UniProtKB/TrEMBL annotation:
It comes from Herbihabitans rhizosphaerae. PANTHER family: FAD_NAD(P)-BINDING DOMAIN-CONTAINING PROTEIN-RELATED, L-ORNITHINE N(5)-MONOOXYGENASE-RELATED. InterPro entries: FAD-bind_Monooxygenase_sf, FAD/NAD-bd_sf. This is Uncharacterized protein. It comes from the Bacteria.
């Protein structure tokens, strides 16, 4: 997928920052992928890559290291685009900003 993923991601992340994920733009400090979502994605990716030419032999490239496939996406560009078109907040822990009036004063 290479650099095309970067082009798609460059559209995804600005849209994400302006989304209603955390309310108003700038109303959150950060996000972290939930362990369940990460584990499910890694299991799917490994399963799909296990049947690729990189895993079954006949191909050597920077996508493999020590017999392990290190490519980060097993699918087509169209699938990547479809899967990143929307944001599932349930897969993330969103850290919201604390309004000043609710914060602890020194």
């Amino acid at each position: 997928m290479g650099c095309k993923r970067i082009l798609l991601s460059s559209n995804y992340f600005p849209a994400l920052s302006m989304s209603t994920v955390a309310g108003e733009p700038g109303a959150y400090l950060g996000m972290e992928v939930r362990p369940r979502a990460y584990d499910e994605f890694r299991a799917e990716t490994r399963r799909r890559l296990s049947t690729s030419v990189w895993a079954t032999g006949g191909c050597t490239s920077w996508y493999t290291h020590g017999g392990k496939v290190t490519n980060n996406w097993p699918g087509l560009m169209s699938e990547y685009r479809r899967r990143t078109r929307s944001f599932d907040v349930d897969n993330y822990h969103v850290q919201h900003e604390v309004p000043a009036q609710q914060g602890i004063s020194a």
